[in-house]
Amino acid sequence: EGGVITSAATMTMTSSPLRTNPITRGAWVATVILNRPPPPPPDTVPPIEADDRDIESSGLTLRQRLTQHQKSPQCAACHSQLDPLGFALENYDAVGRWRPKYASGLEIDSSGELLGKLKFQNIVEFKNALLQHPELFTQAFAEHMLSYALGRELNLADDPAIDTITQSTLKNHGQFTTLIREIVQSKPFRYHVDETAAQENR
What we know:
Strand order of the largest sheet: 1-2
Order of helices and strands: HHHHHEEHHHHHH
Shape: elongated
Structural class: mainly alpha
Largest sheet: 2 strands, antiparallel
Number of strands: 2
Number of helices: 11
Helix content: 40-55%
Number of domains: 2
Strand content: under 5%
């Protein structure tokens, strides 16, 4: 399965040195693809073993080990959202190579639910679930691009522009040129102030 989500660069960047990191991968999907970044983890959360072998020596898969985080009330809310996104990519190892099983022979479970309602069994079904809601990643991309164009973080006053950019882009089947045109024509872009230049001119 190709695409930016499963590219070797993304899989390597979101892995630990010796193993995959479903939490980091899930956070990357939530932040980059959906623009729903998770809050930082509590300081009291213990670290996960750095090597798959340390986990599998107990007879547990990485998923079974990480599921223990969901038993904690302070962790459950975020992990119930992040973990399915990360484990959907678990068939790709720490450098992005496809693997049907762990090196120990344990089966990889990449099933889950997207948005708490769209069930999937593997990466193909996960991507299909994402494609059922193009408004999610279209809006996220519009937010990323408008923020970049303005040189600042977005705020509530930008919401109408984001809605317009997203809807126009969706009507034109996700064309990138439409998204760029709508950003350039948006009120925040046309009336934005370069804070650095403004300070230099004071």
